[in-house]
Amino acid sequence: MARPQSVEDSVVMASLSCVFRDVGYEGASLAMLAQATGLQKASLYHRFPGGKQQMAEEVLASALAWYETNILAPLRTEEPPTERLAQVVKHLDGFYSGGKQACLLNMLASPRAEFGPFSAAIKGAFEALVLAFAGLARDAGHDARAAKLRAERAVMLLQGSLVMSRGLGSSKPFKTFLAGLPDDLIGTPAAHTTPTRR
Amino acid sequence: MARPQSVEDSVVMASLSCVFRDVGYEGASLAMLAQATGLQKASLYHRFPGGKQQMAEEVLASALAWYETNILAPLRTEEPPTERLAQVVKHLDGFYSGGKQACLLNMLASPRAEFGPFSAAIKGAFEALVLAFAGLARDAGHDARAAKLRAERAVMLLQGSLVMSRGLGSSKPFKTFLAGLPDDLIGTPAAHTTPTRR
DNA sequence: GTCTATAACAGGATAGAC
DNA sequence: GTCTATCCTGTTATAGAC
């Protein structure tokens, strides 16, 4: 064995992920990725013979795997919906660093490159998340149709709050989203936001 | 006068806008922009001495101006809120081509380049839109705090629905958003989505 | 104002020593 | 496995003819 890994695989992935989430696929240059990981460009190519595309693919796959175990699986538990959701909210907050980190599903999606290397995974991820949220809403007592609508709205709000947080340079929109998520998914309609009517 | 403008200014801007909305700032190459406009690269530089950055800046400014007259101004009319909103929904549908075109506020925002040339304009645009939506919600009878919350949620849903439409390759999420916008901004809480409880 | 041609540079990718 | 050095392509940007 010639040399030991100077940087651990997991931290390489974390650094790459950070860059892609910040600047997107085309925005990420190899120089940037090398600096972020602490590896030289050639070393990166040793670990990712497929180049930048493979890096992004593995980062995406890794993020989706994390999502599956930390977000989707907890949503399918037998625990009471409120408890499940509390777990998920906590994990979401950590995953997006309180709104400071963007979502790969947004940063890697390019409509021009439909059928790009990411589009299938992205589409599947959106569908899976909607499904998981909808399951929770069903368990909370909503019928199938209403549950699906609530789930879709929740995903929109998640993505939209991240976009807005990025645009405003403030994590407030994301925090607002997290705070409202229980109501959006399981709350009664009247409990929504306005203390006005009722 | 040497040669006439072979391509009108307004159509140049439209073509540039289209490219930036599709692939973002770094994703757009001059070759791409030249082909989209029908001009040569050198001709583009004649109109935009500041290069790609100036093109993006002017495209953004132009889009924001359009937004001001076609979205924000109608929201501030004296007409009944429902009518104003109908106008706005129609314009939004056109502006985003039914969800097929992304939003520049999302595509040009890069958290890495905070204080980039676009961030100030983007931040201002988000704030203005929230303000305008909130004004409508107030006129519909909601108190200031509730109106602001509804407005923020509406902007999140707008951005999120666009992200989701792009990711799924379907305009359905955006259409769902448009359909629900009246309820979200002016509707009573109970009218929301679920026919289940109440 | 627009074009052809080209300079100057950065980006992605590879070779080969250690 | 990692490094230095290099290649090649595509990109930004400019010069100069028309």
Describe this structure as you would to a colleague.
Chain A has 198 residues and is mainly α. Chain A has a single domain (9-191), classed as Tetracycline Repressor, domain 2, CATH 1.10.357.10. Chain A is built from 9 helices and no strands. Chain A has helices at residues 9-27, 30-37, 41-47, 51-75, 81-95, 104-107, 119-139, 144-168, 172-185. In chain A, 42% of the residues are buried. At the A-B interface, helix 1, helix 7, helix 8 and helix 9 of A face helix 1, helix 7, helix 8 and helix 9 of B. Chain A binds a DNA duplex (18 and 18 nucleotides) through residues 1-6, 29-31, 39-43, 45-47, 51-52.
Précis, in short:
Two copies of one chain form a homodimer. With 198 residues, chain A is mainly alpha-helical.
Instruction: Output the CATH class name of chain A.
Output: Mainly Alpha
Q: Total domains of chain A, how many?
A: 1
The CATH topology annotation of chain A reads as Tetracycline Repressor, domain 2
Tell me the overall shape of chain A. elongated
CATH superfamily of chain A: Tetracycline Repressor, domain 2
Given as residue ranges, the uncertain stretches of chain A (5+ residues, pLDDT < 50) are: 191-198
- What oligomeric assembly is this protein in? homodimer
Indicate the mean pLDDT of chain A: 93
Proportion of residues in helical segments of chain A? 55-70%
Structural class computed from helices and strand pairing of chain A: mainly alpha
Using the CA coordinates, give the radius of gyration of chain A.
Answer: 19 Å
CATH architect. name of chain A: Orthogonal Bundle
Q: How many beta-strand elements of chain A?
A: 0
What kind of sheet is the major sheet of chain A? none
Q: What percent of residues of chain A are in strands?
A: under 5%
The N- to C-terminal Cα distance of chain A equals: 71 Å
Which pair has the most extensive contact? A-B, 59 and 59 residues
Q: What's the order of the H and E elements of chain A?
A: HHHHHHHHH
Number of helices of chain A: 9
